[in-house]
Structures are given as structure tokens and as C-alpha cells.
Amino acid sequence: MVGLEAPVRPQRGQIMVTEKVAPFLDYIVHTIRQTDEGGVMISDSVEEAGYDTSVGSEVLAIMAERAVGMLPLLARLNVVRCWAALRVMPKDGFPIYDQSDSYAGAYLATCHSGVTLAANHALVLPEAIDAGTLGEDLGAFRARRFHVSPAH
Ligand SMILES: Cc1cc2nc3c(=O)[nH]c(=O)nc-3n(C[C@H](O)[C@H](O)[C@H](O)COP(=O)(O)OP(=O)(O)OC[C@H]3O[C@@H](n4cnc5c(N)ncnc54)[C@H](O)[C@@H]3O)c2cc1C
């Protein structure tokens, strides 16, 4: 309606959460994190399953095996819940920030990793929108990047 496009797709991720234990993981690990409350979150599934949010023991078993391979002490913990959710995944995995060329004042922002990018969305992006243009840096994230000629 305002000349903006957001090519995103659902991408399923399954999460396993253990019982709470004393802090032991002082480092940031990509697929295993201990929360401040003590539970360990294990998550490394990346699945193209459309809008299906079901949880499956086949994938969970692989995740558990990999996690125990990385941190053997996890084998002693009970899993207390598992769930699945859909990532909102842009076509190339990177955020899309755009502004309408035909309707001044209309902007678009969509991304995966909204937690990691929260500072950018709270501080940098609003300033640019307030100034009336995404500028050169944020302009690189416009959806026009998807309209390129195929390589020969
Ligand atoms: C499996 C998985 C793993 C992820 N891992 C990471 C990661 O490691 N790092 C990272 O940075 N990001 C990760 N993300 C992405 C991150 O969770 C999202 O980018 C972030 O939560 C988006 O925040 P949000 O506040 O915009 O939306 P949401 O967190 O989706 O919040 C939107 C809220 O609005 C509510 N809502 C929706 N419609 C209505 C309505 N009509 N009325 C009232 N309320 C409504 C919803 O119930 C929800 O509470 C992951 C996502 C998934 C699914």
C-alpha cells in the first residue's frame, strides 16, 4: 500500500530448558545459555517447517546429544520443558530497514535477532527515522538489495 516490501519467512527453532542449577556457565555460548535464574536453555535447531510450531523428539534428541557433547555435566540435569517457535527470518537473514520512496514518513523495520539488535532499534534507527532518512549506513539494509541481477 505504501511501496514497501518485507520478504520474510517463518523458520522454526526448538528450545529445551533444564531445571535450575547453580551458576556454572560464565561464557556466552551460541547454542547453550544459562539464565540468571539458573535454568539452561539449549537451542540449535534451524528448521524450514512453514508455520508448523510442533515439537519433535527426533530433533530434541539431536540437540541434547550435541549439548552433552559440549558440556558433559548437562547429562545430569532434568529437562523441564521444551517448546518451538517461529523466527521471523528475512530472505538473507539480515534486518530489513526501509523507507517508502512514494509515501514520505512510511518506514519498515523487520528482523530476526531482535534481542541482539535491540540497542540499534532503540537508539540508532529511531534517530534516523526522526531525521527523515535512513542515510547511507542503514540504507544498505533497504529491501532493494534483493533486486540484483543474477551472477553469470
Ligand atoms: C527459536 C528462536 C530463537 C531465537 N533466538 C534469538 C537469539 O538468540 N537472539 C536474538 O536476538 N533473537 C532471537 N530470536 C528472535 C527474538 O526472539 C525476536 O527477534 C524478538 O523477540 C522480537 O521482539 P519483539 O518485541 O519485536 O516481538 P515479540 O517478542 O514477538 O513480542 C511481540 C508481543 O506482542 C504480542 N502481540 C502480538 N499481537 C498482539 C495483539 N494483536 N495485541 C496484543 N499483543 C499482541 C505477542 O503476544 C508478544 O508478546 C529467536 C526467536 C526464536 C523463535
Structure, explained:
The chain is an alpha+beta fold. It has helices at 57-70, 118-131, 135-139; strands spanning 8-18, 32-34, 40-42, 79-90, 96-99, 107-110. The chain folds into 2 domains: 8-90, D-Amino Acid Oxidase, Chain A, domain 2; 96-146, no CATH class. Helices cover 22% and strands 24% of the residues. The strands form 2 sheets. It has a 4-stranded antiparallel sheet, with helices on one face. Strands 5-6 form a two-stranded antiparallel ribbon. Strand 2 and strand 3 (40-42) form a beta hairpin. The two termini are 34 Å apart.
Widest sheet: strand ordering: 2-3-1-4
Q: Determine the number of helices (DSSP H or I, runs of at least 4 residues).
A: 3
- Derived structural class: alpha+beta
Helix fraction by DSSP (H/I, runs of at least 4): 10-25%
Number of strands: 6
CATH fold-level label of the largest domain? D-Amino Acid Oxidase, Chain A, domain 2
Compute the number of structural domains: 2
CATH architectural type of the largest domain: 2-Layer Sandwich
Q: Write the H/E string, N to C.
A: EEEHEEEHH
Return the average pLDDT rounded to an integer: 95
Task: Spell out which ligands are present.
Answer: flavin-adenine dinucleotide
CATH superfamily membership of the largest domain: D-Amino Acid Oxidase, subunit A, domain 2
Dominant shape:
elongated
**Stretches with pLDDT under 50, minimum 5 residues:** none
Cα distance, first to last residue? 34 Å
Q: What percentage of amino acids are in beta strands?
A: 15-25%
